[in-house]
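Researcher: Structure prediction, please.
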Amino acid sequence: MVHSATAGRIAGALGMDIASGLVETARWARDVRSLQHEPKFLFHRVLTECLFAEFAANSCVIDIARGTPIVYACFIGYDEYAHRRGPSSRMALLKLWELDRMLGRIVAAVNALPELGYELYLFSDHGQTATRPAELILGESIGEHLLADGRTAGSDPVAFGGAGGGDAAAVAAQARWFRRVASVLPGPLGKAALAWARHVAKTLDAAQPYHADGPLLVVPAGDIAHVYSTRVPYPLREPELRARHPGLLERCARSPAIGFTLVRGESGPLALRGDRRLELHRPQDALELAHQVGHPLAAVYARDLLRMRSSGDLILLGCAAPCGETVAYPFEFGSHGGLAPDQLDTFMIHPQELGEGAFASLVRPQDLHRFFLERSGRLPRELPLGAREEATCAS
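Model: Predicted structure follows.
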């Protein structure tokens, strides 16, 4: 049984979260004029960020007291708040303060049992960067922007025939029509039409269980989006992509909401932006991408993304967008998954005796996994050659 004091603390935090959540949700919806994701966020903040976080912290303390050899816990509260309100928002920072209190209990448990020899590590798997939703820049979702024919947001209209019909193009056109209707209707009628346009446009997100099919599918994922051609089962290279979907690359390269468009070229990975064409196997072009994005490893990670067969035929990056902000393709105000510097920065707090350079050679996730296998004594220090040369990818 959970100790009565712990149960009381959880119950009190739960009540406070429900009450404050309802008030804050109403204020947020009034400020941004949208309830997108808010019901689900309210549920998550109560269940995941309050109940699960407390249970995770208490379970760690219990496992430490039992002498469990390896104890691991993931606290995702800050991540959820940063997505919905921004990484530097008051709510996100308050969640960090609550996380500090939970970590304090775990640290106290480790210090109370020095004879068990626990090593304590605290680390992040990624950072968060402040973003602006593409819809607030384009006036429509990224799916509508790419899949609907006709004039789109930006300076000059780009000829586009790449949607190629299908349900996706029809849905994009329908969502656009409702947005135009919403712009001329007064008050509640306009809000209702806009809400329906967003509901229709949601089916353009190919990650949804029920999505519109077509020759092109768009999968938004933070400040990165993958665009797939459904006409062939293998990743397309640039010439075939231009032939099968004319105008698509031009629309992406000139969009105010897309910083760079990554595509597989005939001679290597490419990054397109406006009239610029960067061949990422060339040091000078790789340096230009790193300079524009603001991270020295940007070209390395871009090449990693294009090397993965599961990546889109096009990869859209929201960082360094022409609008001057990092763009999120879902409706969120904090993102990760792309190449913006803040989200690529991670931290590692480790035992002092390991020294400052303990993690200097760790670049990718499998490097970290291997480190902990070695520290636990479960992996020989020398791996077989094949295991060392396995394919790598960016986090």
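Model: Residues 220 and 330 are 6 Å apart (CA to CA).
Researcher: Thanks, that helps.
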